[in-house]
Description:
By secondary structure, this protein is mainly β. It has helices at 3-7, 37-40, 86-90; strands at 11-16, 22-27, 31-36, 54-57, 65-68, 72-76, 81-85, 98-100, 113-119, 124-129, 133-138, 143-149, 155-161, 166-171, 175-180, 185-191, 207-213, 216-221, 226-229, 234-238, 247-251, 255-259, 264-268, 274-279.
Amino acid sequence: MGPVELLHMSVFSQSFSPCGRYLAAGNNYGEIALFSLSAALSPDATALSQKPVLTFTAHEGPVFTLISSDCHLLSAGNGEIRAWSWTELIKKNIKPLWTKRPNYKSSLEIPEINAMIINPRDNSLVVGGGDNNVHILDLEHGVFKSVLQGHTDYIHCVSVREREADILSGGEDGAVRIWDSRMDQSVHCIEVYKYESCARPQYGKWISCVTTDSDWMLCGGGPSLSLWHLRSLSPTSIFPLTGCQRQAAFHQDMVLTAGGSSDHIDVFTNLSYRAFSLSF
């Protein structure tokens, strides 16, 4: 890939392998890159160690979201979801296991799929995208079983709070909605942009990333990347990052990673220090 393509690249998605030794990242060119974390974190790491061990084209359009199960890497772009075998990818064998599409109102409708997460409580896949709805896919039977409606604009991100049976979604409307997955109903709506400490009017109100770890939520987008306590529904930390963060994740209670509007994936070894950046 040339310098012009790198200049215009955005990293939209990322997911750790089940073994924790690899990181997959998806970009706006439809590519998925596989990084070796053991090589990148080694004391003897070089610039080459922070480059992909495998790069391949997964979708015709951008790879908006990636998520890993025990065995599979799931990727999604414009209207479709694909499953890949982690074992085969590590061997550099590239072939999708299956492709599925949510039940849209029209066969001509191809809204982007911006976010996915697996809900282990019922082995379902939670999917959010351009039709403003959250779709629930039963992974055991391979069928979409329900739709959560409430956002007034398209959905950028979803997360699952396992202990509470909650699903979280963030959208272009500036809201993080908390859904009770047992009733398929919205129980809380947090409008992040209305909090002065988080608001960045110059970037807008949209929420592009949300993730949870027990009683904590991390979200950002137009508003600053921020850490929230879910029991009090209040922000506790604001991260001093420039630009709009498109992807963020907790990892082993220690590492926070965030990808922004560039070809870099920033790696934090604690909640304030950026250790290094991975790049395509």
